[in-house]
Write a structure and sequence with these properties.
By secondary structure, the protein is α+β, with helices and mostly antiparallel strands. Helix content is 54%, strand content 17%. It has helices spanning 2-32, 37-76, 102-108, 172-178, 214-217, 225-232, 252-259, 271-274, 276-314, 316-324, 329-365, 372-375, 386-403, 405-411, 416-422; strands spanning 79-83, 95-96, 115-128, 131-140, 151-154, 167-171, 185-190, 199-209, 220-224, 238-239, 241-245, 266-270. The strands form two sheets. Strands 3-4-9-6-8-7 form a six-stranded mixed β-barrel. A two-stranded antiparallel sheet has the order 2-10. Helix 1 (2-32) packs across helix 11 (329-365) and helix 10 packs across helix 15 (416-422).
């Protein structure tokens, strides 16, 4: 019994040494082989290209999504409180919400670091000299802090102190069409009801803004909400929407707490709810990035299988000798996979290094530009999403290495005597 147990221990130790030897042998093959350059660099290049494309795609796709979402929320608000199932247009029915109730919202959201802005809308026709354009007058109680970053020239009017102010913000698009600039005055016609004549109001341009959002820039003029309230003969506490600006996205718990403090006839709507088509377009970026990554991974995996055949054929004499010495199929597989893992790790290192270098340069200097009319931003945006970077690298490594298992199994069936007889 003692001799048997000693033999078992000896065999286990020998198996462990053979396993370590097979890994060491594969690593040495990859380091010392003189005929591997073409096959090795082919595999390395394909893997590096795949990693580079996926990492850059994830970063720029997420960055563009975040930039557009943030820009939309700058004007829409993180969430809006409006009448149930009513759009943020002139058709929305007004609801009563005095400013004194804003404290309830701050308490429900457990934060004082939020901005609350009431808003109303009124469609009309702008007339200046010989130009006549349709526009949407958006009245706000005060210009949100985020609006100031879109100011091209002019000033920010203080509508909270001057409730009768006729100063407005107009977009660069409308300013060019109407041929107006800061301090210019234009007239605007509104219809209260079909039976009455249009109402005329005069406004003075205090600032000119540019968002890059075509839907806003083509028609929206910002004014003091009191102007719309007087046009519609509403009370001071009547609004069509309440805009809530938050630093972070609204959580489900915060939504539930907020629903407890607002009337039942009001609903909570996010930018995704109001601009579903835009967000569906943004979601396609993720789909396209992962689809491209899958295609490149499949190409790299196929290339891996071909390279494995080349590697084994190149080492067929050494493999035959090792098999005659008792090298098992599992140990042979460990050696070949270790040999090929050098190409995988090198390719991944090169791909990641090039990708992060490009992303860092773009993040600092924004030298890759975009058409704002199509992509809503002027340059490619970068997001450092490390969790997705690690996940993508891990999936590529496993997929490419896994594709090498099948050819190794097939070629391990070759008899050593056949190989040695051919030498």
């Amino acid at each position: 019994m003692v001799k048997a147990s000693r033999t078992q221990v000896s065999l286990r130790c020998m198996a462990t040494r053979w396993r370590k030897f097979s890994i060491w042998l594969g690593w040495q093959w990859g380091r010392r082989s003189a005929k591997l350059q073409k096959a090795n660099w082919l595999a390395t290049t394909v893997i590096a290209a795949g990693v580079f494309t996926v990492v850059v795609g994830i970063s720029t796709g997420t960055g563009l999504q975040n930039a557009i979402q943030k820009k939309v929320e700058n004007f829409h608000g993180t969430v809006q409180i409006r009448g149930y199932n009513q759009g943020s247009t002139t058709e929305a029915q007004p609801f009563n919400w005095p400013a004194s109730k804003n404290a309830q919202i701050r308490t429900a959201l457990s934060s004082e670091n939020i901005e609350l802005v009431s808003a109303s809308y009124k469609a009309g026709m702008v007339n200046h000299r010989t130009q006549l354009e349709g526009a949407l007058l958006m009245g706000v109680s005060t210009l949100p802090e985020n609006f100031s970053q879109h100011l091209v020239r002019g000033s920010v009017p203080d509508w909270e102190k001057n409730q009768t102010s006729t100063e407005v913000w107009i977009s660069t698009v409308l300013a060019a069409k109407l041929q107006v600039d800061c301090d210019s005055t234009f007239e605007m016609y509104f219809s209260r009801d079909p039976q009455s004549l249009p109402t005329l109001r005069y406004f003075q341009v205090a600032g000119i803004y540019e968002t890059g959002l075509a839907e806003w820039d083509a028609q929206t003029i910002f004014c003091n909400e009191s102007q719309i309230q007087r046009l519609n003969r509403w009370e001071e506490d009547e609004h069509q929407a309440l805009l809530i600006f938050m630093k972070e996205a609204l959580t489900e718990e915060q939504r539930q707490d907020l629903e407890m403090v607002i009337p039942l006839e009001l609903s909570i709507l996010t930018a995704r709810d109001d601009h579903s088509q835009l967000y569906q377009w943004l979601d396609l970026f993720d789909t396209n990035t992962w689809l491209l990554g899958i295609i490149l991974t499949l190409v790299a995996a196929f290339n891996a299988a071909v390279v494995i055949f080349i590697r084994i054929i190149e080492r067929k004499s050494s493999i035959a000798i090792l098999r005659t010495m008792g090298f098992s199929s599992k140990q042979l597989m460990a050696s070949i996979l270790t040999l090929f893992s050098r190409s995988i790790l090198t390719g991944m290192a090169i791909g990641n290094a090039l990708a992060f270098m490009l992303l860092l340069l773009q993040d600092q200097y924004a030298w890759l530009s975009l058409d704002p009319a199509t992509y809503y931003v002027k340059s490619v945006r970068v997001a450092w999403n490390w969790g997705e970077f690690i996940l993508a690298n891990g999936l590529i490594f496993i997929s490419v290495l896994g594709s090498a298992v099948l050819p190794v199994k097939i070629l391990s069936k070759i008899l050593p005597t056949q190989v040695l007889r051919m030498q």
